[in-house]
């Protein structure tokens, strides 16, 4: 063995695997954004009422999948965000669309996106949605009280 050979052990292999996983994750998210952009472009050209048929015949996507990809492109394709850097897969990307941009950024800063399961994410997003609905009700109640006093 000469001095230029790299000694491979399980730590080196683990490092390589984790680097490849990160590359695949980045490629999947960026690919979803790029596909979504092209779907948006195509949708603007396809005659009204023909979108579903066009999708099936040309790209084999359901309308729901296409809609998710277009939303990913619209929300994440505008600019680099911390949320985009932390999201682990397209499922997380779609689920996080339930939050507005600022809420999404805050959420990914407060949660370990690499270890949260899809189910845990769904539960947490549902909790936030309910919490926001309660806040909205409180604002509406306050506005009603103000109007009653006037």
From the spread of the alpha carbons, the general shape counts as flat
End-to-end Cα distance, whole Å, is 89 Å
Spans with pLDDT under 50 lasting ≥5 residues?
none
Return the structural class.
mainly alpha
DSSP strand tally: 0
Alpha plus pi helix count: 7
Largest sheet: none
What value does the average pLDDT take? 89
How much strand? under 5%
In percent, how helical is the residue content?
over 70%
Helix-strand pattern:
HHHHHHH
* Computed CA radius of gyration, to the nearest angstrom: 22 Å
Question: What this model shows, in words?
Answer:
- With about 150 residues, the protein is mostly helical.
- It is built from seven helices and no strands.
- Helix 1 (about 10-45) crosses helix 3 and helix 5 runs parallel beside helix 7.
- The chain is flat, with a radius of gyration of 22 Å.
- The mean pLDDT is about 90.
Concise summary:
The protein is mainly α and 150 residues long.
Characteristic key phrases:
mainly alpha; flat; 150 residues
Topology at a glance:
Elements: H1 10-45, H2 51-58, H3 63-76, H4 82-86, H5 90-96, H6 101-110, H7 118-149
Helix pairs in contact: 1-3, 5-7
